[in-house]
Amino acid sequence: MVEILFQAISLFEKNKIDYCLIGGLAMMLYGGRANTVDIDFYVLVEDLEEVRKVFEKEKISVRSAGEHQLKIKIKGVQLDILYADHYLGDQVVKRAKRKKLGKNYVKIATPEDLIVLKTLADRSVDRRDIEELRELFEKKLDEKYIKRKLEYLRNFLS
C-alpha cells in the first residue's frame, strides 16, 4: 500500500495538484490503531478533473462516485479522491502538515481537521478515531479551531 501511496503522491506533485491524506491511513501515520484497505485523499475542487486526466494518462482506471469523489484502483489498492470544497476542504488541504514516511514526505490533514471531518461523517469508526486522536494529542489540539469550524459547518448545513 505504501508503494501505491507514493505513486499517487508523485503524480500529484509532478502535476502540481495540491492534496492531503485523510482517513484511516492518516490516522495510522499519526500513531492511531486504524485499520484500512484504501487510501483517502482530499484535493481542491478545481483540481478534481485534472486528477482524472493525470491518472487516465498513466492508463490507470478512474471512475466517478457521485459528483464529489473519484475512485481509482492501482494494483488492487483503492484510492478515494474526495474534492475539498470551499466551505471546509480547501482549508484542510492548505493546513495539512508534511510528515516524513521513510525517505519521503506525505501531506496529512492536521489532527484538528481529521476530528472535524470525522465528526461530520459520524460513523462509529469515526467516533472511535476522534477519541483516539484526542488521546494521542492530549492538550496539543487547537480546541478553539475545532469548535469554530464545527459551529460554522452546523450553521452552514442548517
Explain this structure to me?
This protein has 158 residues and is an alpha+beta fold. Helix content is 48%, strand content 24%. It has seven helices and seven strands; from the N terminus they run αβαβαβββαββααα. It has helices spanning 2-14, 23-29, 48-57, 89-95, 111-121, 124-136, 143-157; strands at residues 19-22, 38-44, 62-64, 69-74, 77-84, 97-101, 104-108. The chain has a five-stranded mixed β-sheet with strand order 1-2-5-4-3. A two-stranded antiparallel ribbon has the order 6-7. Strand 3 and strand 4 (69-74) form a beta hairpin. Helix 5 packs antiparallel against helix 6. It is globular, with a radius of gyration of 15 Å. The chain starts with a helix and ends with a helix.
